[in-house]
Design goal:
Structural class: alpha/beta
Low-confidence stretches: 1-9
Strand content: 15-25%
CATH topology of the largest domain: Rossmann fold
Shape: globular
CATH superfamily of the largest domain: P-loop containing nucleotide triphosphate hydrolases
Number of strands: 9
Radius of gyration: 20 Å
Helix content: 25-40%
CATH architecture of the largest domain: 3-Layer(aba) Sandwich
Order of helices and strands: EHEEHEHEHEHHEEHHEH
Distance between the termini: 32 Å
Largest sheet: 6 strands, mixed
CATH class of the largest domain: Alpha Beta
Number of domains: 2
Mean pLDDT: 89
Length: 313
């Protein structure tokens, strides 16, 4: 397990605990930030925009006496398009696999109107859960202390959580206590993954996500939500030459293609400039990143493309 977490048990006779923890919650609550913090490395992309995560991402947190299989899911929301319906289905299907559910909520969304909306939308989801649910109240570094206790009580009235843990996924505050709470609820079981495996996500998948993250960060309005990234080639030479990655950025409209490319290719160059070093750091070697932009009209409603992207059955 990545430091600073310690889950060794003072009782040497205590059983080894392991199981699946499904991470759910509203969009932009900080699930991906928390997953990356737990693992000590970036496997899930993070942006300030909601509905960034589209696929289910698995992370493995291993301690001396435990192994937590963390499943980061797309944020639960009211879906309209086929792609969004599939994202919500992924999140709900994950609940069926879970031994424990980790519901992550944003502590800054604490005005009455937002809380009422959370109560309406997520109360029904939580009522379907048949395993213990832990509430992690995230972003406490942005909330005044006197606001925190009433907010915790509001959530306790919403649902009988097994425990409520205030955390800051960005700063790491409270995350060690959160791990302890999760482990205490897991069943006795073996290690399902080797100690040095932090995720089952492929390097190709993570590279595509890192490129998509830059599109989210650098473009506005509907453009990020109308884009996807497909890796067409991932060439790893045996010598010290760079890994050559060919990636296609899909868009739905010609006008979006123009935005992604930018004036004289400036936006595409900026996406490449920001993504290539992160991919190189992940791979531990130099990267030559080559990007193209293609128009695939209505791809977010195309089941074959969604399947290829892992977003549909």
């Amino acid at each position: 397990m990545t430091e600073p977490f310690s889950t060794s048990d003072s009782n040497p006779a205590a059983p080894h605990r392991s199981g699946v923890v499904a991470m759910i919650g509203p969009p932009n609550a900080g699930k991906s930030t928390l997953l990356n913090h737990f693992l000590g490395q970036k496997i899930a992309i993070v942006t300030p925009k909601p509905q960034t995560t589209r696929n289910r991402i698995l992370g493995v947190l291993t301690g001396e006496a435990c192994q937590i299989i963390l499943l980061d899911t797309p944020g639960l929301h009211k879906p309209r398009e086929l792609m969004n319906r599939e994202m919500v289905r992924v999140a709900l299907d994950t609940l069926a696999e879970a031994d424990v559910v980790l519901f992550l909520a944003d502590a800054t969304r604490n005005n009455p109107d937002r809380l009422a909306k959370i109560g309406r939308e997520f109360g029904e989801y939580l009522r379907e859960v048949r395993v213990p649910v832990v509430l992690a109240l995230n972003k406490i570094d942005l909330v005044a202390r006197e606001e925190l206790l009433p907010l915790m009580e509001w959530y306790r009235d919403l649902y009988p959580f097994a425990s409520v843990v205030p955390v800051s996924a960005l700063q790491g505050d409270g995350t060690d206590m959160l791990v302890t709470e999760l482990v205490s609820l897991l069943p006795a079981g073996p290690r399902y993954y080797p100690d040095d495996i932090p995720t089952d996500a492929t390097e190709r998948f993570i590279a595509a996500e890192m490129i998509r993250e830059k599109v989210f960060m650098l473009t506005r309005a509907e453009v990020p939500y109308s884009t996807a990234v497909m890796i067409e080639a991932f060439q790893e030479p045996d010598d010290n030459r760079p890994v050559v990655i060919h990636a296609v950025i899909l868009v739905e409209q010609p006008s979006q293609k123009g935005i992604i490319i930018g004036k004289k290719g400036s936006m595409l160059a900026e996406i490449r400039r920001k993504a290539a070093p992160e991919i190189a750091e992940m791979l531990g070697r130099r990267v030559s990143l080559r990007l193209w932009v293609k128009v695939k009209k209505k791809w977010t409603r195309n089941e074959s493309i969604l399947r290829e992207l892992g977003l549909s059955r």
